[in-house]
Amino acid sequence: MDEIKVFTGNAHPKLAQGIADYLSIPLGRCEVFEFTNENIFVRILDNVRQRDTFVIQPLSSPVNKSLVELLIMIDALKRASAERITAVIPYYGYGRTDKKDQPRVPITARLVADLLTVAGANRLLTVDLHAAQIQGFFNIPVDELTALYLLGQYFEEKDFNDLVVVATDIGISKRARDLAAKLNAPLAIVEKRRVGNVDQAETLNIIGEVKSRAALTVDDEIDTAGSLVGVVSALAERGVKEIYACCTHPVLTDSAVQRIASCPVKEVVVTDTIPVTGDKKLDKITVLPIAPLLGEAIHRIHTGQSIGAMFEQERRDD
């Protein structure tokens, strides 16, 4: 692994350190800071000429600063003659703007893909994109990992015998179905409609039998937790005996933590694709480490091994 270098911006250095520890290499040295005029400065302190380089940077809060840091780091590595630059973006910000669903709106997920490619990224490694079509926005190889098996393993150990997996909307139903199959549980789907451009959704109906069962809701991310609270309330009204929730990306903006604390959900299980620190910490919120998954993927990319093979054993077990 002498030819590999892993660097990080300021978005999630703890995750980057965990990945470096998994790979048994030191974290790459660099300076990434903001001048008083808000211009971002990057200096790579290690020799990266002809090296395989990876930049760890989720597009988490502050999203735009995290994005620009990543773009400048990629440019710095390109100008330092790195052999290959892989942007490791555990959480792909702007992923929800993936199509024109209204007149005269942008497809920002595509714009971000173009920016990364123009900056000099040769490859993208990410986890659970909001929409699978985002892979097609890139003209470079994209490896999309899933935290599905990590979350599934956690709930397998709880050994439910009356569990129902609940997809929080139609869009997440395929992933929810896969998780339901892993847990040998039936699937229910929440039918809902989003209201305008604000983070509000109206829960309309629950398709499937949930009464007197333990329910596990599945989503790719929890943002304001408004949708989660609505789903939990709808499940409670339909006689669910206890409710758990899981997602890959704990965005947790606005009053999300307070909403989770006050609603009857028993436990919310997330991964640390985004830092869960400070006031985001809550006894109800369990954080599973994603560093081993990303570290193994980076090792396989560097050594030319299959990424898909990481999940084949899980599929066979299912």
- SS class: alpha/beta
C-alpha Rg (nearest Å): 20 Å
Run of helices and strands: EHEEEHEHEEHEHEEEHEHEEHH
* SS elements, strand count: 14
Pick out the low-confidence regions: none
Which fold name is given in CATH as the topology of the largest domain? Answer: Rossmann fold
How much strand content do the residues show? 25-35%
What's the average pLDDT?
93
Largest sheet: 7 strands, mixed
State the distance separating the first and last CA atoms: 33 Å
- Estimate percent helicity: 25-40%
H/I helix tally: 9
CATH structural architecture of the largest domain: 3-Layer(aba) Sandwich
CATH class of the largest domain: Alpha Beta
Give the CA-based shape. globular
Strand order of the largest sheet: 10-9-8-11-12-13-14
Taken together, the total number of domains comes to 2
Offer a quick outline of the entry:
The protein is α/β, with parallel strands linked by helices and 318 residues long. Helices cover 31% and strands 26% of the residues.
Features:
14 strands, 31% helix, alpha/beta, 5-stranded parallel beta sheet, Rossmann fold, 318 residues, 7-stranded mixed beta sheet
Question: Can you give a write-up of this model?
Answer:
The protein is of the alpha/beta class. The protein has two domains: 4-146 and 292-317, Rossmann fold; 148-288, Rossmann fold. 31% of the residues lie in helices and 26% in strands. It is built from nine helices and 14 strands. The strands form three sheets. Strands 10-9-8-11-12-13-14 form a seven-stranded mixed β-sheet, sandwiched between helices. Strand 9 and strand 10 (201-207) form a beta hairpin. Helix 1 (13-23) crosses helix 8 (291-303), helix 2 runs parallel beside helix 3 (108-119) and helix 4 packs parallel to helix 5. The radius of gyration is 20 Å and the shape is globular.
